[in-house]
Input
Amino acid sequence: MTKITNIFGTKFSGRIGKDMVAASWKGHEYVRTYAKPPNRNTEGQQEARGRFAGAVAAWQELSHVQRLFYDRIAEGMSGFNLYISRHVTAVQEEEEPEQPMEASYVTADGESVKIGSLKVKSGGHELFTLSLKDGRAVVALTESDSPYTFILRRGKAEDEVLEVMDLSETGMPEKLESKALRIKLVKEK
Output
């Protein structure tokens, strides 16, 4: 925030009374006349606010795992901002906003895998690494962020068990299995 000191030592920042504003531009502090902003309640602005409010409401309805997915794929911004941006863009283009598909996997035998995990990658970076110590794992993925690589792990050993190139064609995998690691996960219905 800009702070301007007058000859009496008083510091000003932001609006000064009703007529003046203390501001800064490229490191130079100055005082200028306050200009009342124009009416921003146009029909277009109201539509934009409605799209944004709809996106925020949709974000609030996402599960924890779906929100976590956006946090993991967002680069240079928050998962919230990425979701809002995508949602608003879809609505502007009169398309249905994309919602992450959520799938819960359980071990086929119902047993825990104490030192096992399910790892999901996209574009070379890790989205989820979920422990299988309670015999289950829940992931959320979007069609538009394919391809995905599913990796099962037991101890230090890993096995890339499936690569899904286009989630829109295949949907969430029904099973993930590594015979070498003796882990089989099936999607809960």
Notes: Residues 43-61 form the longest helix (19 residues). The CA atoms of residues 121 and 149 lie 5 Å apart.
